[in-house]
Design brief:
With 176 residues, this protein is an all-alpha fold. The chain has one domain. Helix content is 70%, strand content 0%. Helix 4 crosses helix 6 and helix 5 runs antiparallel to helix 6.
């Protein structure tokens, strides 16, 4: 039995979204970056785990990088992240998969760069405030999250969350 190709195209279902897994992550090097070197594969709160990875990697890398090198890493990380986070999201069939955590990593590196030097407690508060803005997405973060699409949208709302985190920290520091 033959079917009319025009009719078959009209009723073809959308591709089923792919689940993030170690196997999926290893299918392409860009997925490794997008999924935060595996931190985004956490079954519970992948964004939080990705942010914890960002914190640990910042502490490790900060001994070896100057502020200018951090600045270059952040700019390249943001621009490249727009491309490879969008690539991974497209391959997964989801607009902004929770397993894609490169956006949290770059944004939290930015926060930590601006609050350093800070005590562990200061960094912990930066983590808590950033996670609040990233999870709750109060306006205008929610606007950007809903209206910007693709890799740029994935990256940009976390950059705005980082900005608000730094604003809260700056206001707190000036009031003390």
């Amino acid at each position: 039995m033959q079917t009319d190709p025009a009719v078959a195209n009209e009723v073809s279902p959308r591709p089923k979204p792919r689940k993030a897994s170690a196997r999926f992550m290893l299918t392409h090097p860009l997925h490794i970056l997008s999924l935060g070197f595996g931190s985004g594969l956490s079954p519970v709160a992948p964004g939080t785990v990705g942010t914890l990875f960002a914190w640990a990697s910042f502490v490790s890398l900060n001994r070896h990088l100057t502020v200018a090198q951090w600045g270059a890493l952040l700019v390249v990380g943001f621009i490249a992240g727009c491309w490879f986070c969008g690539f991974t999201a497209k391959k997964m069939g989801v607009a902004d998969p929770s397993a894609v955590v490169w956006d949290e990593i770059v944004a939290f590196w930015l926060v930590l760069l601006f609050v350093t030097p800070a005590t562990f407690t200061g960094q912990l508060w930066a983590f808590i405030v950033f996670r609040f803005f990233d999870m709750v997405k109060p306006p205008p973060i929610r606007y950007f999250d809903r209206h910007l699409k693709g890799g740029f949208g994935i990256m940009f709302d976390d950059l705005v969350a980082a900005f608000f985190t730094l604003l809260v920290i700056a206001l707190w520091r000036t009031s003390v």
